[in-house]
Each structure stands twice: as structure tokens, then as C-alpha cells.
Design brief:
This protein has about 130 residues and is an all-alpha fold. Helix content is about 80%, strand content about 0%. It contains 8 helices and no strands.
Length: about 130
């Protein structure tokens, strides 16, 4: 039987993968139409929508993640990095890009993974914020 935590983690990974495809300009139509409703996924994961999440300072979002199980932190940080990176690029919002950089850096720290695409996005964000 699937628990709420496992279901939430599955949603986080699903959203992160969908955002990854959008970032790489490889969206799938069916995914875009049926599954990728940011606000409903945000409400399922965080109990509030993206507008409420994005209005919070980075430190507060990090505290929300820290309240979750430690083994899941890397998934949250990757998803948050992708979420803020994608929206920062689309909306040309430097605050979102700064948050993306922070969450990507936390993802690299917590995962212990050498992820060249993430490192490249961090470099991209740094250039955009200069």
C-alpha cells in the first residue's frame, strides 16, 4: 500500500521530470495537457500553489524541505531548482533564477551526484544575474 509520503515523493519526481523536459525544450504534448498542472501539483506537494511558494523567501522554503524526511531532500531540491529555473527563464524573473541557483546548489550538496546539466544551469543563472 502506498503511503502519503511515497505518493508525494512520486509527485515530486514526476514534476521534476516534466520540468526537465520543458527546460530541454522536449515537452510531451500528453504530459503538458494531462499531467502538468503546476498549481494542483504544488497544492498536492506543499498544500499551496506556486504563487504562494514563490512569494516565500528561500530560507523559508528550505525550512519547509527540512521538515520532510532527510532522504527526500535531494528530490525536493531538484524539483524546486527545476521549477524556479523554468519559471525564471519563461517569466524573465531574476528572483526565481536566484532561488533556482540556491536549490540546485543544495541538490548537488545533498545528492552527492556530479550532475553536469545542473552545474551548467547554475553557471547560466550566474551569468543572467550579473
Amino acid at each position: 500500500m502506498i503511503t502519503d509520503k511515497e505518493f508525494t515523493l512520486r509527485l515530486i519526481r514526476q514534476l521534476s521530470q516534466a520540468l526537465e523536459k520543458l527546460i530541454l525544450d522536449k515537452p510531451e504534448e500528453s504530459l503538458m495537457q494531462k499531467e502538468l498542472d503546476f498549481d494542483s501539483l504544488m497544492k498536492d506537494i506543499f498544500k499551496f500553489d506556486f504563487a504562494a511558494l514563490s512569494a516565500k523567501p528561500k530560507e523559508e522554503i528550505i525550512e519547509i524541505v527540512k521538515e520532510r524526511q532527510e532522504r527526500d531532500h535531494k528530490d525536493y531540491y531538484e524539483m524546486l531548482g527545476n521549477l524556479f529555473y523554468y519559471n525564471g527563464k519563461v517569466l524573465k524573473n531574476n528572483d526565481f533564477l536566484d532561488k533556482a541557483k540556491t536549490f540546485y546548489e543544495l541538490y548537488l550538496q545533498t545528492s552527492g551526484i556530479f550532475a553536469l546539466p545542473i552545474i551548467n544551469r547554475i553557471s547560466d543563472v550566474k551569468k543572467a544575474l550579473e
